[in-house]
Write a structure and sequence with these properties.
alpha+beta; four-stranded antiparallel β-sheet; Immunoglobulin-like
Length: 142
């Protein structure tokens, strides 16, 4: 039930008649949630949210966040997925050892966007469900 609530909240901000939900993205999140708990580790995203405030014109935003493995098992990063095709990510490896971190870089293309923007980037792997989401939000006022 929590998974369905999370997924519905995740796609509420991105859904429109033009841009339908990414069902492949939803299925990958479901697969992660169903992983055997003996194989999972705990991760933390730092920061877990960025607000770009109000912008007069849409442009490209760049930034980064870190995935830290707080658990005792390796975190195997299967994929980094965004809920919008306007976000590109870059990272250098797919395994994060215990107490190690990985920097994830992102570029958000806000061209042709207006109003309130709220998008997510999700780290998909063998982590406990619920702590792997990075949120980008703000408003384009022009």
């Amino acid at each position: 039930m929590r998974l369905l609530l999370f997924l519905s909240l995740l796609f509420t901000s991105c859904y429109s008649e033009i841009q339908k939900p990414d069902y492949d993205f939803i299925n990958q999140i479901k697969q992660q949630a169903e992983l055997d708990s003996d194989l999972t580790t705990t991760i933390e995203l730092n920061p877990s949210k960025v607000s770009f405030g109000k912008l007069n014109t849409a442009k490209k935003l760049t930034g980064s966040f870190y995935i830290k493995n707080n658990g005792t098992k390796d975190f195997n990063l299967l994929n980094i997925k965004a809920d919008c095709h306007c976000i590109d990510t870059d990272f250098t490896r797919t395994t994060i050892g215990p107490n190690d971190s990985l920097k994830i870089r992102y570029i958000v293309d806000l061209k042709n966007k207006k109003g309130f923007i709220s998008n997510t980037i999700v780290a998909i792997g063998n982590c406990q469900y619920g702590n792997q989401t990075f949120l980008i939000e703000g408003t384009i006022i022009n």
